[in-house]
User: What shape does this take?
Amino acid sequence: MLAYIIRRLAYALPILLGVNLLTFALFFMVNTPDQMARVQLGDKHVSEEAIEQWKAQRGYDKPLFINTAENSEGLLTDTIFFEKSARLFVFDFGKSDEGRVIGADISERMWPSLAVALPTFIIGISVNIVFALFVVMFRASAFDTAAMVLCVVLLSISGVFYILGGQYFFAKLWHLVPISGYLAGTDAIRFLILPVIIGVVAGIGGGTRLYRTLFLEEANKDYVRTARAKGVSETAVLFRHILPNGLIPILTSVVVVIPSLFMGSLLIESFFGIPGLGSYTLDAIQAQDFAIVRSMVFLGSVLYILGLILTDISYTLVDPRVRLS
Amino acid sequence: MNELMSVMNELLSIKPVVLWSDVLIYILVASLGLFFYQLSKNPLARQRWRTVFHSRAGVASFIVILFYLLIALLDSLHYRAPLEKTEGSDEVHYSQEVHSVLDVVLTELRNKDEKTYSAPFAIYSFAKENMQTDDGVVYRDFPRLANAGQHLADEADHGKDVFVRSMKALLVAAFISAVIIGLHIAWRQRQQRQQCSRGLTTQQTLPWGTIYLTQSLLVLACCWVLELSKVYHILGTDKVGQDVLYWSIKAIRTGVLIGTLATLLTLPLAIVLGISAGYFKGWVDDVVQYIYTTLSSIPGILLIAASVLLIDVYIETHPEQFNLVAVRADFKFLALCFILGMTSWTGLCRLLRAETLKVSQLDYVQAAHAFGVGHNRIIYRHILPNITHIILIALVLDFSVFVLAEAVLSYIGVGVDPSMASWGNMINEARSELSRDPLVWWSVAAAFVLMFVLVLAANLFSDRVRDAFDPRSA
Amino acid sequence: MELLQVENLSIELLPGKYQQAGRLLVKPVSFSIRAGEILALVGESGSGKSLTSLALMRLLPEALAIRSGRVQLAGTDVFDLTEAQMNSVRGRMAAMVFQEPQSSLNPVQTIEQQIGEVLRLHKGLSGAALREKIISLLHEVGINDAEQRLGWYPHQLSGGQKQRVVIAIALACEPQLLIADEPTTALDVTIQKQILELLNELRRKRQLAVLLITHDMGVVAQMADRVAVMRYGEIVEQAAAREFFAAPKHEYSRALIHSLPDRRHFLSAPAQSEPLLQLKDVRVWFAQRKGILQRVVGHTKAVDGISLSIGRGETLALVGESGSGKSTAGRAILSLEPLAGGELYFAGERIDQLSQRQFLPLRKRIQVIFQDPFSSMNPRMNVRDILAEGMIALKVEPDAEKREQRLQALLQRVGLEVAHLDRFPHEFSGGQRQRLAIARAIAVEPELIICDEPTSALDVSIRGQVLQLLQELQQEMGLSYLFITHDLSIIPHLAHRVAVMKDGVIVEQGDTEQIMTAPQHDYTRSLLASVPVSPV
Assistant: This one.
């Protein structure tokens, strides 16, 4: 088991290196720091000096990979790649183009993100599983058909409309919850209810449909027939045989997103004014702050790869076929 | 006669503009044609498509998608109209604005700008203005709209007028539909008689009732829109007084194109890499797996955001390459499609690799090896035809995903160019409108309805396609 | 007293998405079973025998329904019961054993849970009593170390053990009727014999009525007291087993019985010439990787040093159970699998070191026929393209017109029609497809054909025809066959010599008659002992 985890981690390294190089190429080679400076400074006719100064302030005035001006020590380290990209491996995100420390911002803003994303994730999955089981219980009936049509309708609606609709009805028309905003501590609950509900509702269509398919796939397997031939009642077949088997693909497929929950949701956070990492990223995108976007790309990849590793581990935990072989 | 001549002259004097995305949509339509031709040849594929089109939901959603595609196609025939000749110069100058054939169809909607917001079917503006009575007294009230309801002699007739015109549209639509359906039924009966005389048994027929109904509803919608838009703003006007319906129809092209091109642009990459990995295995497989794991480990939305930012930088620093607004928007649009495709091809590549692995283990591929058939030929004759269903399913499944994604991306500010009509841009603008009092709901509603119909049709259709082609569900 | 009485039972496929009217899959059938009796319901795939058994338990899939009939089990009418009452019949009065032991157990429950479930349900057992009962059941079905295996999951057991567990579940509540649906089809012959013996013994001990569903006449001969033959949803003949084998009345029954091996007549070996194909100590190994760096820590020795030879016009049968490495050996001869060692000679020339390009001329001379007629032809190509592919690739007949004539002649030779050239594979039955596969192989006029279980996916009545065709072609064209099979029963008709393979090595080889009548090796003997024999 330990050897397995170590091997998975070792596999992750070249991938992270690839991500790192790719983002580096995107941000510093496809576009030169000169061009970034020009866009940031806004004016098309900025002076060379202003550009140089802008670059110098942010450390973009160094050579890309090899600094021939430096002696052996700084040959590789005093470069843009080392300073801006390689340092990401130790989670040293440096400073944003505005001069704020990105690492501090991230550690501060990931908690509100988690406060929204975690309940949405847990409640969402539970609700979807319950709905899917309910539909499977009445499979091949008119209820099943109607539920599936409803699911398709629900998943054909853009998430934006769920948010707009929710805000309008719950907050504006009925004044049940504040329209947006955030407070730390227990006061947060008031602000979290609506985003969580909307996050859950927006996922019902797709989730229920997917889980129903997974459960139905199990329901058609031979061991279910064996269970029926034993004289097990239909309900017991569903809960004792289909559910535990169907949960395996469901659980292992959702594990991959768990680490990424820290990243928050761009849409929900910006609509509801929650100061999480999602809105942080969005603000950076809109302000064209390349340093932050770069950091978030790398962080996102790290969390995703972590999720993949967790997925593999979760298989060995919940599936006896994998655990013991 | 003279009139005809002048129309001809005008037609000849326009300057066609072909944007890159236009070329791609022509290719798309051509390949659809080719696809149907191929379909008529392979009985196995035909049988599977038959199950798709024999389901009522399948055929109805297909017609709706075709209708959207038709609008997108009309909106992709672009031209620049000539400007009035300046005196003393023989040189023809062309308008900086690029129009499409759809704009000609929708002339009624396009050239009727108001000053600001107005509600659907309204004849008064949404905002009060300072006005003067004939005798010079200044007062504040809602002004009449410049291009809506001007023909009404009595304002009280407003509701009645809408109803009468709707009825008229209904009659026209009923007539057109009746003609089309009548002709088709006559043609079908002739076909059947011929088949009977040749002794062929009639096959299970398509659900024609559903087809007729869908078709009639679409005709009705067209007639109604064209009739009422002559004198009203059916879906109101936006902040700067432009007709909302016009812009939401113009947004169809963006939606349809983004749904198809995003997958199509990166399809060759997914196919080549996926098949190579699954067929050759070994180090090729390792490299391909490394590439797609790396790319897919970057969260999609962040990759898109980062790439779009970089494209913005490119456009801003190379203004000389983008002389027209439409060209710039088109470049950005294609880049966006490509980037969207980049975030999704890895999934398809993974599926194709797995399926190729499976197919290349099958006996018929082994038999081909035993006959000494070359790799290229094996891939072309044996592997590719037997994994096309995966590509097809991915295409139809991704379509609705991308249409929905466009709205979100435009909202975030990394979507299509703000000058381009798109549902995402409409929603983005609608954000401030929703906090107004009274509520300005119509632009967001227009975007919602048109987008919902397309995505729902696409989802229903992709369900049927998946049912018919996915061996697991068969 | 009849325990089970089935009267005029018919089953229909309900009208659905793809068809307008309902279709009768089982036409009214009637039969009965007494306590302690085994009734064999015999038929080929699609004859409706499994549906009949599911209908008895009211376990038909949703698309199917019982159209008419009455089923009486120990005096109660099964179709009159409510679903809840039915649940107390299933597993307690009547139990089932299914074909596929790999999938018929719940993969995430332990053996104890799965056997325990049925006991808890019908007997209300729990705690130590339950555990004790489970252990005694496991002992009864012949699972050793029952105490240790209680906590095991299905995937830790072998196929035979799994089937024993399924039988234990079925017998846990002492049912009076056992329905066994192809209980041994998925198992290797040696295991098959053990399971059949177990069933027979339990039947005697417990006075079980058994409905044994099978397509294998050997199993019928060994087990049945009475036989009912089913075809196209109808029972065409019903008789006591002895009578049935002595004087089958229906023509189809005769065809079925005829498919049993005749052990008295053997092919005589053709005059020995120099060998066409020769294997010397051939080894095919697959690397096993382990650890952080995925180093090669060992090898799976699929083929571990086999030597054999085939003469011109000769058939060598390579016999072995699944996993013995016989198919891998065939693939190695075709150069589809690299050798780890040893030498291969074809017509006197060494061929194992040739590159794929150098091997090309040999592809014309060595051909192959695969087991599964459904996957051996590209479903997207029509018959013409399939047959012509090899001729074009190997430049056998570059001229299109002559090639077309050859194709037509080929189709007629294998018993198909010229009009079939434009059809696609899915339009053919399994037997026809296998004829196509034969036509494809002989299209390039090979000298040696590797037949990898060419008949094991076919129904018995078709099997004989395909084997007959192969033999005719051998005589006409002087072909040599390497016939890879697990089915000993077809060998006497077919093979001149036999090589028996186990765990990657050949344990015994010799003339067919000698191997079949006087086997030297223990494994060969146990294989032969497990082949069912016609009682007549």
Notes: Residues 37 and 54 of chain A are 7 Å apart (CA to CA). The interface with chain C takes residues 3, 6-7, 10, 140, 221-223, 225-234, 240-241, 244-245, 248, 319-321, 324-325 of chain A (CB under 8 Å).
